[in-house]
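User: Reviewer 2 asked us to show a designed sequence for the structure in our supplementary figure. I'm pasting the structure tokens here. Could you produce the per-position amino acids so we can include them in the response letter?
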């Protein structure tokens, strides 16, 4: 068998291997569809609260896209603000939520805090905002 014949056989084997593996590849985002997040509201005003009070608001959203939506992270602007969110993917048409908890301990006056919701919908996060006016007891 000459060198050209051996190279031709190796080429055919490699092509056959590539074709057989192609069916085992995970689906890409294009094949899974594209998720799209739509929040009912992106801001909430707690009004006037007492200093030291912990308040919570749940922001609801819907996946209006045609692929599974995944929240990958939620970052807050301050250590006084925390979040809770579902780790499970949200199917197209389904709803989910992001809960924001604000601890007013040591704070006073008007407060504006934010949370950035990172998803597989795109490179930019959705920004949620909470407002409160904190009264101190004197």
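Assistant: Here is a per-position design you can include in the supplement:
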């Amino acid at each position: 068998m000459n060198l050209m014949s051996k190279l031709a056989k190796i080429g055919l084997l490699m092509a056959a291997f590539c074709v057989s593996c192609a069916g085992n590849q995970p689906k890409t985002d294009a094949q899974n569809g594209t998720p799209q997040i739509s929040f009912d509201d992106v801001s909430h005003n707690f009004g006037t609260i007492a200093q030291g009070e912990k308040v919570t608001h749940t922001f609801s959203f819907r996946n209006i896209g045609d692929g599974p939506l995944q929240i990958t992270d939620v970052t807050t602007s301050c250590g006084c603000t925390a979040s809770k969110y579902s780790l499970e993917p949200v199917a197209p048409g389904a709803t989910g939520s992001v809960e924001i908890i604000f601890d007013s301990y040591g704070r006073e006056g008007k407060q504006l805090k934010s949370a950035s919701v990172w998803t597989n919908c795109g490179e930019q996060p959705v920004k949620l905002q909470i407002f409160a006016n904190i009264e101190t007891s004197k």
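For the response letter, you might also mention the following. The radius of gyration is 25 Å. The beta strands are 37-39, 43-50, 54-63, 71-76, 81-85, 95-103, 109-119, 126-135.
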